[in-house]
């Protein structure tokens, strides 16, 4: 009988001695991120509306003293320290007729240059006026382009320059219309009356 008792004890011991297979516990990797909150910034001393109004006041002041295109005025405001958005807002809300500014710019340019229409267009566009604004300025400003051609002819002609060479230079080199160049050449050295 001992034998029978030994078998259950052996079975019991063997069950206790050998570990039963336990499925592995799945490991979960815990990732922690350190989130650093950005420091709360103090509000700017002025609101956006205040800076826009200040930009508008400055735009009015600048535009009353000089002739600007919209682009030229915006650039000037930016160079004075206004943000691009505030400068754009000020220019858009100025209520200026940029076509009339282009006309005024042509009159001003004509005081200091002997420009042809083509040269006026070029100078206005370089000053920031759009093609349409520059075209409007040239078409609506009263400028005697024949007189400008004559002044240019006087400035560029030499003693030995043939009239056709001068005419060609006025048209091709300076942008005067053929009839303006013809008038200038004819009036450069008017034939004396008898």
Give a description of the structure.
The chain has helices at residues 2-17, 48-65, 70-79, 84-92, 98-112, 117-126, 131-140, 145-156, 163-173, 178-188. With 194 residues, the protein is mainly α. It has three domains: 48-92; 97-143, Arc Repressor Mutant, subunit A; 144-194, Orthogonal Bundle (Arc Repressor Mutant, subunit A), CATH 1.10.10.
- Report, as a whole number of angstroms, the end-to-end distance: 167 Å
DSSP E strands, number: 0
List the domain count as a whole number. 3
What gross morphology would you assign? elongated
Largest sheet: none
**What do we call the CATH topology of the largest domain?**
Arc Repressor Mutant, subunit A
Residue stretches low in confidence (pLDDT < 50, at least 5 long) are 1-46
- Global mean pLDDT: 79
N to C succession of SSEs = HHHHHHHHHH
Tally of DSSP helical segments: 10
CATH homologous superfamily assignment of the largest domain: Winged helix-like DNA-binding domain superfamily/Winged helix DNA-binding domain
Question: Which features would summarize this protein structure in a list?
Answer:
signal; 3 domains; Arc Repressor Mutant, subunit A; mainly alpha; about 190 residues
């Amino acid at each position: 009988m001992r034998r029978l008792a030994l078998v259950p004890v052996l079975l019991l011991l063997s069950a206790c001695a050998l570990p039963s297979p336990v499925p592995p516990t799945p490991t979960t990797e815990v990732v922690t991120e350190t989130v650093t909150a950005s420091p709360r910034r103090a509000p700017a001393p002025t609101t956006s509306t205040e800076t826009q109004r200040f930009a508008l006041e400055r735009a009015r002041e600048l535009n009353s003293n000089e002739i600007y295109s919209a682009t030229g005025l915006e650039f000037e405001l930016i160079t004075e320290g206004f943000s691009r958005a505030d400068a754009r807002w000020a220019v858009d809300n100025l209520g200026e007729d940029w076509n009339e500014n282009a006309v005024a710019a042509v009159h001003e340019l004509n005081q200091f240059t002997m420009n042809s229409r083509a040269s006026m267009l070029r100078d206005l566009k370089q000053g920031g006026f759009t093609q349409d604004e520059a075209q409007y300025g040239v078409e609506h400003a009263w400028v005697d382009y024949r007189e400008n051609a004559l002044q240019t002819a006087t400035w560029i002609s030499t003693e030995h320059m043939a009239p056709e060479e001068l005419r060609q230079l006025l048209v091709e080199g300076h942008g005067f219309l053929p009839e303006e160049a013809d008038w200038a050449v004819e009036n450069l050295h008017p034939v004396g009356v008898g």
